[in-house]
Amino acid sequence: MVGKATKEATLSVLGMKCEHCAANLENALLKADGIEKAKVSFATKTAQVAYDESKIDLSGISNVVSDAGYQVGD
């Protein structure tokens, strides 16, 4: 359930080469504490994330993306 501390962001993701990459990143995001929803698209090279800002911020989300082997673009 999306609470009042929930923020949403759409991030550009660099380094995905296929749908499998998008699925791997989506799974990594969903496992991170504070991320409530994640939808990663290989076609648009984006990740849409709903997160609890009291548990994780954009920097933390970027770290999850990096740890999964990808980069957040500008």
From TrEMBL:
Q: A Pfam family in this protein?
A: HMA
CDD domains for this protein: HMA
Q: Which PROSITE patterns match?
A: HMA_1 (PS01047), HMA_2 (PS50846)
- What InterPro entries would the database entry show? Heavy-metal-associated_CS, HMA_dom, HMA_dom_sf, MerP/CopZ
Does the entry feature the keyword Hydrolase, yes or no? no
- Does the record bear Metal-binding in its keywords? yes
Q: Where is the HMA domain?
A: 7-73
Annotated keywords: Metal-binding
- State the protein's name: Copper chaperone CopZ
Organism whose genome encodes this protein:
Anaeromassilibacillus senegalensis
The taxonomic lineage of its organism, from the top, reads: Bacteria, Bacillati, Bacillota, Clostridia, Eubacteriales
